[in-house]
Specification:
heterodimer, A: 336 residues, alpha/beta, Rossmann fold, Alpha-Beta Plaits, 2 domains, six-stranded mixed sheet, five-stranded antiparallel sheet, 23% strand, elongated, B: 220 residues, mainly alpha, MetI-like fold
């Protein structure tokens, strides 16, 4: 799967979306409920047909396949869900065996593959467990194994971590990242959790009201959010849970007052003395109210909330200079 | 006393034959019909191949057959019994109308049981590339099995009731015994024993059905 283009014009659920999902990476699609995520995933996983527009896997058009080929194509796609959607009438191993059974694979080969898959997701020996005895995280692992059974090139995760607690979410995300690297998978994560995008995805598309409002590399979108939807998501971002790393992402607040400006620094910029340079060059004082660093896809994004005090003219010039040096400046509505 | 025992024994055996044969044939008719009712229904209720017109027609037929009073349906079906088993009275002849009367009931029960299957699970099965037949055989039926067993239990209990009614118009079994001996020959003892045996049969079927269903749930 190399390229995936889509443009639909359905009844507003998904409106004129065109995306190019790169292969061999983790791609996030984020949106609030009702933004059209579910519709989008049903379209690209070939469960529904678009009213108009096209879907390509690599260079093969797949949205208009006849029924028989559609079924064959679906077998090359892996999918996991928020509610796991495992068969309660089957145990863990039988669940994983299902996609192999329907593809008409020999019994002894199924057994072999199921054992491999159980090991892959860290559930060796739990094959005979009834589904109801498994924890949420284990259920999602079974679901992942089931989705990967037929060696798919692409794995869709529809709110795969939304029903899990933060710790389990973390372990499922790292499992998905590992699997992506080891199996050269293309993973598409549909979510409403910014944490998931931050921790696991390389690219992201932000969905609102059935349209893509922003897309790009996660690091760029996080550092310089353009749409209000994205900013909204970022504002509610919970602190990063990274037990192995030094915890340094909490915003340190010196003062609850003020803070007209929010500055966002990216990567290499974090090291430069931009602020003091600006302070020397213009007739302004910078009063820092809060600050913190977040790690996004291995790069640092710094955030400072501050006031810039001085003559309005000078403040404007200072802001312009900040922007010139690659810092994103957001100004809050001035309260007078 | 000995005669009473042998009368009741024969009648019970006849009732069991009627009920289980009718259960088998009504399931044979009702199971595909119930599945068809469910999968052609609206997509929001587990319909995997929505066919509104077909669904409506089937649904109407089932409703009409179900609202027929059983005795009248049985009389209407006498000619059919004669064609299929060569006679319209006795135990074997009763199996035909019993099966046909119970089939729409079975269809509804099966439809309801299958509609309870989590739509998410059906979606997952579709996304994995299952054919319609594979979804029915490997997903819908196994997932709905505990409810199906409860439904079949209910069907058998209903059939015990129907088969007793069939006694009034020339069926065999315990109902026939109760009417011919108990009512027409003023033998309250035969009437009482027949009724008790019917009650015991119903109770036994219910207990076994509950056990099987509960055991299936416990293994999940």
């Amino acid at each position: 799967m190399r390229q995936l283009h889509r443009s639909y014009g359905t009844i507003r659920a998904v409106h004129d979306i065109s995306l190019d999902i790169p292969s061999n990476t983790i791609y996030g699609i984020i949106g609030k409920s009702g933004a059209g995520k579910s519709t989008l995933v049903r379209l690209i996983s070939l469960l529904e047909r678009p009213n108009s527009g096209q879907i390509f896997y690599d260079d093969k058009r797949v949205d208009n396949l006849p029924k028989h080929e559609l079924i064959t194509q679906r077998r090359k796609i892996g999918m996991i869900f928020q509610n796991f959607n495992l068969f309660s009438s089957r145990n863990a191993a039988q669940n994983i065996a299902y996609p192999l059974e329907i593809s008409g694979i020999q019994k002894h080969e199924i057994d072999k593959r199921v054992a491999e898959l159980l090991e892959l997701v860290g559930l060796t020996g739990r094959g005979n467990a009834p589904i109801s005895t498994l924890s949420g995280g284990q259920k999602q692992r079974v679901a992942i194994a089931r989705a990967l059974a037929n060696h798919p090139d692409i794995l869709f995760c529809d709110e795969a971590t939304s029903a899990l607690d933060p710790q389990t979410t973390h372990s499922i995300l790292s499992l998905l990242s590992d699997l992506q690297k080891n199996l050269n998978l293309s993973v598409v994560m549909i979510t409403h959790q910014m944490e998931v995008v931050r921790d696991a995805c390389v690219h992201v598309a932000v969905l609102d009201d059935g349209e893509v409002v922003e897309q790009g590399k996660v690091i760029e979108v996080f550092a310089a959010p353009e749409s209000s939807t994205t900013k909204d998501f970022l504002a509610h971002l919970a602190p990063l849970v990274e037990p192995d790393e030094v915890k340094r992402d909490d915003m340190v607040r010196w003062s609850d007052e003020g803070g007209r400006f929010t500055l966002r620094f990216r990567g290499s910029l974090t090291g430069e003395p931009v602020l003091s340079r600006i302070q020397k060059r213009y007739e302004v004082e910078i009063n820092i109210r809060a600050g913190g660093v977040q790690r996004v896809s291995g790069e640092d994004v710094g955030t400072l909330i501050c006031d810039i005090i001085g003559e309005p003219d000078e403040v404007d010039k200072a802001v312009a200079a900040l922007q010139l040096s690659g810092i994103l400046v957001e100004e809050e509505e001035q309260k007078r | 006393m000995n005669m009473l025992f042998s009368l009741v024994w024969t009648a019970t055996a006849e009732t069991l034959v009627m009920v289980f044969a009718a259960a088998f044939f009504s399931l044979l008719l009702g199971l595909p019909l119930g599945i068809l009712l469910c999968i052609t229904g609206p997509e929001s209720q587990g319909g995997i191949i929505p066919k509104p017109v077909l669904n409506n027609v089937l649904s109407r037929i089932v409703n009409i057959l179900r609202s027929f009073p059983f005795i009248i349906l049985m009389i209407l079906l006498f000619p059919l019994s004669r064609i299929i088993v060569g006679t319209s009275i006795g135990t074997t002849a009763t199996i035909v109308p019993l099966s046909i009367a119970a089939a729409p009931f079975v269809a509804r029960i099966i439809e309801t049981a299958i509609k309870e299957v989590d739509p998410g699970v059906i979606q997952a099965a579709r996304a994995m590339g299952s054919t319609t037949m594979q979804i029915i055989r490997k997903v819908l039926i196994p997932e709905a099995m505990p409810s199906l067993v409860s439904g079949i239990t209910l069907t058998i209990i209903n059939l015990i009731g129907y088969s007793a009614m069939a006694g009034a118009i020339g069926g065999g079994g315990l109902g026939d015994l109760a009417i011919r001996y108990g009512y027409q020959r003023f033998r309250p003892d035969v009437m009482l024993v027949s009724v008790i045996v019917i009650l015991v049969l119903v109770e036994v079927v219910q207990v076994i059905g509950n056990k099987v269903s509960a055991r299936m749930m416990a293994r999940r």
